[in-house]
Amino acid sequence: MKVLYLSAEVEPFAKVGGLADVAGSLPRELVNQGLDVRVAMPAYHMVLDQWESDIVPLSTGFDVNLNRNKSVPATVYSLEHRATSHWLVDIGTAFSRVTCSEEVYSPQRDDYLAFVQATIAACRQVGWIPDVVHANDWHMAFAPVFVREKTDWCHSACVYSIHNMAYQGQFGRDTIEEAGLPESTFSWDKLETWGGVNFLKSGCAYADHVNTVSPTYAQEIQSEDYGCGLWGLMRHLADEGRLHGILNGIDTESHDPQLDPRISAHFGPASMEGKSECKAALCRELGLEKGRPLLGVVSRLSEQKGFDLILPCVARIIEAGASLVVLAIGDPTMAVQFKELAAQNPNRIAFCERYDADLAQRVYAGIDIFLMPSKFEPCGLGQMFALRYGSVPVVRKTGGLADSVFDGVNGFVFDEATPDALWTAIDRALAVHGGPEWTKLVHAGMTADFSWSQSAKKYVELYDQALSGRRILSKQGCTV
Ligand code: GLC
To answer: How far is the CA of 380 from the centre of ligand 1 (A)?
Structure first.
């Protein structure tokens, strides 16, 4: 089965958030399971630059017609990495000005429309027509639209993955013209939403199947509170059997405390001494007092991630005798608050306001308790990394957190999105920390299977289901 997997960010080439982790690890497991996968991403300047010696041109200088008045020359490069084939699709424009991961989302609507069309053209150009087109998030949402409206690939199925309902890509009606599509596509069951064109909705309307990244989130987005204005559509997809929730996995090879070269000492479920060394080294590095329970957060400073719940708990954490490390960037007001708290308690609170993937590993390995009190969380990967590194998560019962952390089994779970509810859960964790109950929690977390092998099988089943639906449709005479 040939799968074209489209993502704006892919680890290790370009990483902003969890999507990069998924796009950098799920395709590899699909390859392991025997699928023929191409991961397509824009040819960002820094990727062409940093990976120059691994890059091979596949097809150069072909023209891609974008609409009646516009075409762009495109080049596809191939880049093999850890047994997975990546296509870097170069159409110049804004992508070629992206010089670091922080700039990955500086391109605009028209750049994404052009990228997706160029990727489809690249398939034709090299004679590799996918059985399944799998598009991720709003940036790639027009892949199903173009496959159905602009190709004759009636046997190719489309799957669309939502990693966060909060980012939809809502634009004006002029999107239709820019995309070179007929006016007839501007209807409620196709591209039209609230008088404009909504990318996420368009992807859902045209895909054979839609999935999101945990079973609980797939339920939640059918409600007004979590559906970000599209809960009616989500319910409709669910009624039609087209909405699925598949829990993300993690790359268990590069996140293995027994081998990880980024941490100070190695450890595993049967030999935990290395974890104490990691904790001591982290405290030294951050100037924190030793011998106290250490809580940690690796996240994005935002309300979504529950920092408005954490901030009011900080004084209580200190009073209870624990320390805290926060590694995050984002909301400047929240950053100021954490800076002040850290300045007042320099040997108890460390605030690291930067993106630092290596420090993140040292935090996962060195802390005792991992906080992730998200308002909503489509899946969340931090809690899985923490579990694997023997740190016990305290999470809010939502989305993928509810599907991976279980109260009293491998962590602590609370329901209400209030500082008091978070504090009660932290207090419960501190009460058992260090005792025999704790050892059991840590062991359960470290030995659970968070690899992709199970979830990738579910994707393969979903692809199969989408393909058989297509076969029925094409027998009924559908042209695309
Ligand atoms: C988004 C979501 C996060 C999820 C990730 C990968 O970043 O916010 O919950 O884990 O995508 O699917």
So the answer is: 5
List the pLDDT tens digit at each of the 480 positions of the chain: 999 999 999 999 999 999 999 999 999 999 999 999 999 999 999 999 999 999 999 999 999 999 999 999 999 999 999 999 999 999 988 999 999 988 999 999 999 999 999 999 999 999 999 999 999 999 999 999 999 999 999 999 999 999 999 999 999 999 999 999 999 999 999 999 999 999 999 999 999 999 999 999 999 999 999 999 999 999 999 999 999 999 999 999 999 999 999 999 999 999 999 999 999 999 999 999 999 999 999 999 999 999 999 999 999 999 999 999 999 999 999 999 999 999 999 999 999 999 899 999 999 999 999 999 999 999 999 999 999 999 999 999 999 999 999 999 999 999 999 999 999 999 999 999 999 999 999 999 999 999 999 999 999 999 999 999 998 888 887 767
Q: Do the beta carbons of residue 400 and residue 248 sit within 8 Å?
A: yes
Helices (H) and strands (E) in the chain, counts: 18, 18
In single-letter form, the type of residue at position 33 comes to Q
* Domain regions of the chain by residue span: 2-249+454-475, 273-449
Distances (CA, A) of 230 to 162, 166, 198, 222, 432: 12, 10, 10, 8, 42
Does the beta carbon of 248 lie inside 6 Å of ligand 1? yes
Distance 315 CA to ligand 1 centre (A): 30
Using CB atoms within 10 Å of the CB of residue 449, give its burial: 0 to 12 exposed, 13 to 18 middle, 19+ buried.
Answer: exposed
Cβ of 163 closer than 6 Å to ligand 1, yes or no, is yes
Q: Under a CB-based contact definition with an 8 Å cutoff, are residues 248 and 379 in contact?
A: yes
The residue contributing the CA closest to ligand 1 atom 5 is 18
Q: Look at domain 2-249+454-475 and name its CATH class.
A: alpha beta
Domains 2-249+454-475 and 273-449 share a fold: yes
Residue with tokens 């339920």, as numbered in its chain:
219
CA distance 205 to 236: 11
Q: Indicate which residue's Cα is closest to atom 10 of ligand 1.
A: 380
Among protein residues, the one whose CA lies closest to atom 1 of ligand 1 = 163
Please name the fold of domain 273-449.
Rossmann fold (3.40.50)
Position in ligand 1 atom list of the atom nearest CA 21: 6
Give 10-14 contacts, CB < 8 A, sequence gap 24+.
Answer: 10/39, 10/41, 10/86, 11/251, 12/81, 13/41, 13/44, 13/47, 13/50, 13/51, 13/79, 13/86, 14/41, 14/44, 14/46, 14/47, 14/98, 14/101, 14/104
Best residue for ligand 1 mutational test, from 298, 379, 383, 405 (most atoms within 8 Å of Cβ): 379
287's tokens: 């100037």
> Taking the complete model, does pTM exceed 0.70, yes or no?
yes
